[in-house]
Write a structure and sequence with these properties.
By secondary structure, the protein is α+β, with helices and mostly antiparallel strands. The protein has 2 domains: 1-30; 31-174, L,D-transpeptidase catalytic domain-like (Beta Barrel). The chain is built from 3 helices and 8 strands, in the order H-E-E-E-E-E-H-E-E-H-E. It has an 8-stranded mixed β-sheet with strand order 3-2-1-8-4-5-6-7, covered by helices on one side. The N and C termini lie far apart (65 Å).
């Protein structure tokens, strides 16, 4: 009987530790998936409002997304509310952003800078894949285009992406 109680206590402590480890608090979200289950690329189809996490050519996960408020066409200048199109990568993450978790896309790339320079405008920046604004009272939002050019998801979705996408992951965004 005593051994059974010890086993139950150990099981309870282990379960509590595991739950704490996968806590959804933005400041302590760990990478909990094994490396062989992580995405090796992100594919975004703007016209379908879809983001796919891919591994070895197959789709791991697919999500409905919201884009910039003026989504048609590539981002060319700061303030145009367009989501970029092209090849990028996740270069850093922010747990303490104004949104529920953010993965930074390294926009603008060389082609974006050249196109903006040719137009005589600033290309803008600060393009992220992120959750909802921290001030938003719900964790799920209607999938309407509302960002300033970022790619937005529900909070549970960005938490999953946060765990499945390492820094350095390539991002392809198509019209």
């Amino acid at each position: 009987m005593y051994l059974a109680r010890i086993c139950l206590v150990i099981l309870a402590v282990t379960a509590a530790a595991w739950i704490a480890a996968v806590s959804l608090r933005a400041d302590v979200i760990p990478a909990v998936f094994p490396k062989d289950l992580l995405a090796d690329s992100i594919y975004v189809d703007k016209s379908e409002r879809r983001l796919e996490l891919r591994r070895a050519g197959g789709v791991l996960r697919s999500y409905k997304i919201a884009l910039g408020g003026n989504p048609v066409g590539p981002k060319r200048q700061e303030g145009d509310e367009r989501t970029p199109e092209g090849h990028y990568e996740i270069d850093f993450r922010k747990a303490d952003s104004d949104y529920h978790l953010s993965l930074h896309i390294n926009y603008p790339n060389a082609q974006d800078r050249a196109a903006s320079l040719k137009m005589g405008v600033q290309p803008g920046g600060a393009i992220f894949i992120h959750g909802l604004p921290n001030a938003y009272p719900l964790s799920v939002a209607p999938k309407v285009d509302w960002t300033l050019g970022c790619i937005a998801l529900d909070n549970a979705e960005i938490e999953e992406i946060w765990r499945l996408v390492p820094d350095g992951t390539p991002v392809t965004i198509v019209p």
